[in-house]
Amino acid sequence: LVVTARRVxxxxxxxxxxxxxxxxxxxxxxxxxTPTDLMFAAPSLQMTTAFGRLNGSFSIRGLSGxxxxxxxxxxxxxxxxxxxxxxxxxxxxxxxPQGTLFGRANTAGAILITPAxxxxxxxxxxxxxxxxxxxxxxxxxxxxxxxxxxxxxxxxAIERTHVDGYTKVLGSTQRVNEExxxxxxxxxxxxxxxxxxxxxxxxxxxxxxxASGGFVLAAANPNLAIFNLP
Length: 230
Prior knowledge:
This protein is mainly beta. The chain has 2 helices and 17 strands. The protein is globular, with a radius of gyration of 21 Å.
């Protein structure tokens, strides 16, 4: 597996860094469909969500606030807690301080999410679709087209996810914990001449229109002032 844990492409077995690397095949086989699912595949990694599934933060080895997520080597991007994973080359979780290569915000570690790049020499693509109960629909697809063989290519990827809300709100007909989003990603790879110069551009679109996450009341303190109003 080729990784970029040291800002260059290397074989994982030759990298002297504690890395959990998940290939595209591994992500599919282990049903890792959002960033939240990573904590079930990478040791010492945890994600805590707040105010709904779209807000969350990672911690590594129990250290919060020192973990940065990189999408296509850029901090941030479409990496919210419930943002869908689709058309990825791999995901890497780096344990331990990564300040030398990734900046001082990475005292606990770094998470690298790498989208699949266009293929310069061939036409390729895929389409995955699944359905289930609660009107579940998950679709993923991509197509890569060479424009100038060996030099210029473009790749378009799309996704659609919908799951009906499955948590009832007492006293109403409302249901929460719904998932409903769609996204698209267009990337262009240009290697003119002998390939010594490379330009990679990417535009990512992500739209969400869904009910919020639900809370379950586990306990209440009757001594709080809010419970003793007239």
